[in-house]
Amino acid sequence: MPDQVDSPLALRHIPFTFDNADPEASALRLIEEYAPQWKTEEGEVKLTRFTDGITNTLMKATKKRPGRTQLEVESDSVLMRAYGKGTDVLIDRQRELKAHNLLATLGLAPPLLARFDNGLMYRFVPGHVCSHTDLAKPEIYRQVAKRLGQWHGALPISAIAATPILDAQTDQKPFAPTNGQSTRPYPNTWTVLQQWIDALPESTDKETERKKMLNAELVDVSAKLGDTPGLDGRDYVFVHHDLLCGNVIVTEAESTSNGTSKEKPVTFIDYEYATPGPAAFDIANHFAEWAGYDCEHDAVPTKSQRREFLKHYVGSFRYHSISDNDSIAVEIDFEKDIETLYDQVERFRGMPGFFWGVWALIQAMISQIDFDYTKYAELRLSEYFAWKEESDGSRAREGREMHVREKRWHSE
């Protein structure tokens, strides 16, 4: 069976529901449905469960065929990702398939192999999954910056946009433009957030007040940040939206010399939340993920780390956004681009906490995974409000101590 498909809708479907309570048995049956020869050919089938994620069940199947190198065996491995129960309220699965299919076509994602009733199968990317401390290593974050610049510079948002635009005159949602002239692709960062807030319960006075407060915050930040001008007039780009450490893989490729260090290319996995969005959000979100799942707020990047990251990002964005069809030479000011993005990321630094705080409130209702989503929501929303009180000056006026994340963010 070929690894690549022309359309996500043409992807082979295996009528099987993965049982998260019995992942090994489910994974074995699924791989044998996909490739019956795995059952009869010589070589042990090894199943490995990854435990880094807090949304899905992820299993890897490896066929240890004799006479093959370890890299060949790994390259032929299959990943099975079973969706968390109820996550359709959070994720548009058709959009995810479109995003994955485009990325795979361009060599930026592992090939899709098949889908099953509650998940996807795709080829394994040999390499190692980053930890949150890895993200702070220069040889890692330089490569992340280059890859992210490629995504934002080269990928068309048309592949994941349901309709071309929203018009403020016909759609008065807070994520729509407010001046009646500018337009935003749909869906986008703001529409996703609005859908999540809409899904929150209102069964108690406390829940109703919380939902009202979150809606008011979304109206405010969407108006302030939603039309932030992007490089080359690209206000919305193809964003990953979830560039945490577990979604960054250091691949088994040739090292490239960079002074005294060796750097290997990285690739990004898991495209559940890929949608059009502001580049500054995607970058700020990645910086927030330097803190890891435990929200170690003193681990976010400093000013100098952010500047170095952006230097590599801008160079890659410019390289990958140049088209052979460009008929007019544009004078590029890299330093100005870096400063512009630096200031924009500064303004967006609270948004990841808002985004994932709302997400965690929904997960607290639906997830069966053993994870304290309520506490996680509080931690992430605290990042947003720490940013807000610095931005409006209320923290300083009241003489309170600066949040540890803000202290670290403003350090050199």
From TrEMBL:
Q: Cross-referenced InterPro entries, in alphabetical order?
A: Kinase-like_dom_sf (IPR011009)
Q: Which GO terms describe its cellular component?
A: cytoplasm
- List this protein's GO terms for biological process: phosphatidylethanolamine biosynthetic process
- In short, the EC number is 2.7.1.82
Q: Which enzyme type, at the first EC level?
A: transferase
Molecular-function GO term, any one = ethanolamine kinase activity
Q: Which superkingdom is the protein from? A: Eukaryota
Give the pathway annotation. Answer: Phospholipid metabolism; phosphatidylethanolamine biosynthesis; phosphatidylethanolamine from ethanolamine: step 1/3
Q: Could you tell me which Pfam families the record lists for this protein?
A: Choline_kinase (PF01633)
- Matching PANTHER family: CHOLINE/ETHANOALAMINE KINASE (PTHR22603), ETHANOLAMINE KINASE (PTHR22603:SF66)
Q: Which family does it belong to?
A: Belongs to the choline/ethanolamine kinase family.
Protein name, UniProt field:
ethanolamine kinase
Species name: Zasmidium cellare ATCC 36951
